[in-house]
Design goal:
- It is a single chain.
- 14% of the residues lie in helices and 35% in strands.
- The chain has 93 residues and is mostly beta strands.
- It has one domain: 2-Layer Sandwich (Conserved Hypothetical Protein Mth637, Chain: A).
- Strands 2-3-1-5-4 form a 5-stranded mixed sheet, covered by helices on one side.
């Protein structure tokens, strides 16, 4: 049986000095959005690949457990990941 999964909304900033978590914000409906800076450029899917790799590494899960659900060509993305990984995200203020 597979473990439960959840969706996480992230806003990415490509071409950053380094890949890192940058805090939290809210979307227009008041839902939490995780801010992530990505070192990769937004070209040929490099930023999306970097985002999924970074999340898998930081949240101690395999790359196959982290997938992009929506927002392939947008800064605002919805990522699916194991529900257990939410505990490893930076805390919201």
């Amino acid at each position: 049986m597979s473990s439960p999964v959840t969706s996480l909304t992230v806003r990415v900033s490509p071409n950053a000095r380094r890949t890192e978590f940058a805090g939290w914000t809210m979307d227009e409906k008041g839902r939490p959005v995780l801010l992530i800076k990505l070192q990769a450029p937004p070209v040929d899917g490099k930023a999306n690949t970097e985002l999924l790799r970074f999340l898998a590494d930081e949240l101690d899960c395999s790359k196959s457990q982290v997938s992009l659900q929506r927002g392939e060509s947008s800064r605002l993305k919805v990522v699916e990941l194991p529900a257990s990984a939410l505990d490893k995200l930076p805390k919201r203020p």
